[in-house]
Amino acid sequence: LAVLYQSSGRMEKAVEIYKESLELQRKCGNVSPLEISTTVMNLGNCYRQCGELKESVRLLEEAVATKRSCYSSPNPHVAVAIHQLAFSYGLSGKMEKAIELYQESLELKRKCRNVTLQSLSTSTYNAASSPCRSRNTSSLQQCSRAAAVMNVGCYRDSGRLRAFTGKSSRNQTDMPLISS
Description:
Helix content is about 70%, strand content about 5%. It is mainly alpha-helical. Strands 1-2-3 form a three-stranded antiparallel beta sheet, with no helix packed on it. Strand 1 and strand 2 form a beta hairpin. The longest helix has 18 residues, at about 10-30. It is globular, with a radius of gyration of 18 Å. The N and C termini lie far apart (about 35 Å).
């Protein structure tokens, strides 16, 4: 229900429901820390959309810490949580921290199995756009080139990624999945 309120722009109602859900999950005792961390992350993202960046960062830090403690090997859920935290740091003007976290998210995604090129491209693009705002042109150029190479509209096709240019099927090429 909170997701519906959030997607329709009714943030105060979404925050209220996320908080209520979080309170019930914590009282229940049989809800996994990962489930709770997902609600915490959703609440943090909602606060970010409301412009309450300090609270967003606090909650997303909690979600990242929980997810890190629950997974022993590289996991895309941890990378997504770090990515969301980086976004909130960036919006709050803490660009160096945002860059550090975007790069960590990107490196973690590279280590994960079955991560799509689209996911890597998004992290690379965000890592590139943060240095742009902080005037770090060397990182911007490096990340922008990597994002441009990866951002080719990839989709899964029988265990492989097929890159396409959007012009015709003659322009499509197969590329191996990225894995560790």
